[in-house]
Amino acid sequence: MAVWDKKVLWSFTVLLAGAVAQHVSYPVTSACAVKGSTVTLPCTFTFQKSAVQHGKNVSMKIRRVVWCKNHEICQGPTPSVYDSESKTKHRRFQYLGDMLGNCTLQIRDVRMEDNGTFRFRMEANVENQHFTGKSGVNITVIGVSKMRINSSNHERQIRRGEKVTLQCTSVCSFHQPEITWFKDGHTLQKSGSTLHIDPVIAKDSGNYTCAEIGRQETSSVPYTLQVEEAGKDDYLPLIAGVVPVVLLAVITLILLFFKRKRAAAEDRSDVGGEMEQKHADAIYSNIMPPSEQEEVYDRSQTSQAVEDVSYASFQFKQNKQKRQVREAEDSVVYSSVASRG
Known about the structure:
This protein is an alpha+beta fold. It has four helices and 21 strands. Helices cover 35% and strands 29% of the residues.
């Protein structure tokens, strides 16, 4: 009896360990899909590497994977959207996973009947190791979903030189569709959900829209971007930097002007010293009394007369000496002639 109890306990322990090891993970448990779009359901799973079967330890392998809709365990005759053992393949449902741990499913051209909960089931080579992820992924399908533009700048009026980022998103999608951008109705050479404008210039003003590629009906409501010219406050740093430079230049010019003016004044004072002295004498004579002026005039006349007499006497003496030298030379010549005759 005790031996049987031990076997039962061992079997229960192995089954419990296997159950704990089996696991399916859905990163996204609910999603909103647009009719006609493509939806990807991320999924991963883990399983026990070995299990006991008929009293023997058997290496575990996954031999079948199934995706079904609106069934709790995807077992038996339950309709499936994908079955790895089925020869019938649904073109709209593609299994992107494998038998090792990836169970991702992609649904193309989503239809209204795709509303529901999708679950994944894995089946191993040991019957008691089959497992279904019961939480599943709930899909809600709607007709047409307009795209929406979100801006990194809450103000639609942006100053020139700033930067802005526009994000195109769908109000009903957990995946990121392929996006086309438009400005004033013209297609931009930019794809992707994000539009960066850096730096912003005047010609960037306009109405921006985005839509899924090939689906113009998903076009967003226009987002108006208005680029403002730089305000007066934007010039304050420039003014603050220019004013000191201009002020310094003006002060330098003033100092240079006075320096040159002073140098010119000194040159004029040196050259015109004598003229200033003569002018001073003339001014002094003009301010003398008449009697003193006559006395000064008489003295100047007397001095001039004395200078004339001295000059005349000097000239007379020179002329007299010349005559004496000439007479002596004539006498010599005469006596020489007389002696020869």
